[in-house]
Amino acid sequence: xxxxxxxxxxxxxxxxxxxxxxxxxxxxxxxxxxxxxxxxxxxxxxxxxxxxxxxxxxxxxxxxxxxxxxxxxxxxxxxxxxxxxxxxxxxxxxxxxxxxxxxxxxxxxxxxxxxxxxxxxxxxxxxxxxxxxxxxxxxxxxxxxxxxxxxxxxxxxxxxxxxxxxxxxxxxxxxxxxxxxxxxxxxxxxxxxxxxxxxxxxxxxxxxxxxxxxxxxxxxxxxxxxxxxxxxxxxxxxxxxxxxxxxxxxxxxxxxxxxxxxxxxxxxxxxxxxxxxxxxxxxxxxxxxxxx
Length: 292
Ligand code: C2E
Ligand code: MG
Ligand code: MG
Ligand code: MG
Description:
13 helices, Bifunctional diguanylate cyclase/phosphodiesterase, alpha/beta, binds magnesium ion, binds ligand C2E, 292 residues
């Protein structure tokens, strides 16, 4: 009896493993055609300064709606794209889309914004990605100072020696570099100091703890102080409520990103959001409130 039950449990586990392997293979195949079929799109999540309340820019986030498989989360399909190298083509497409969107916002009078784009380790270590970035900036007209590339902490640590050298090429281009999901890896302070980065993004798991877990608060305040000591800009990810935003403002975090500011939006909606959050220009304020 017990043995039979155990055996059934094992069979179910085995079946679900097989199903998951099959899903991965199916999705990888579908992803191959997704770009050409127009199933990929980029959404933009605004980032806000705590000191000025102004929107400072946005992060480009990839979305995949497959007619066969529905909406698939980046956490599921990005690893697949990294495994088979498709991330190189997809990553370049995202970068170009994001720069085109930013340039459109700039042409509509929204200057001084930064566009952040997530970068996979494969893009950093394979080929001439700095050359790709330079070309996209040239093609779209976006100044390098308006672009920030995000790399996850685990990626930076796993390839320490190689990445420091590669990252320098981006800094020489003039683009900013952010460490994403900070606090989830094992960065040493000494190592952080040697990387040519400009921004630290505190992982949202620590932000979620603010307000009820003293450890989350301790880690957050420590990271902010350390980053400022190193002359870095600090962004808190996943800010969902006023308690978290107030805590971060009190501890001099520079910027926040999260549902509290806005969900990710399509390029047009994000432009409208940024415009609405800006104080009206003096000339606009001088005009009568209602047209004659
Ligand atoms: P990430 O770069 O850390 O992006 C932040 C994630 O947090 C996004 O998930 C965003 O939608 C989500 N988020 C934002 N605000 C909140 C909030 O207040 N609460 C909660 N619970 N979540 C929030 P998303 O879009 O599902 O992306 C997941 C990850 O996939 C990203 O994490 C990034 O590592 C990766 N990714 C997304 N787009 C790209 C891309 O174009 N290229 C690469 N290489 N990776 C990407
Ligand atoms: Mg990111
Ligand atoms: Mg992150
Ligand atoms: Mg992440």
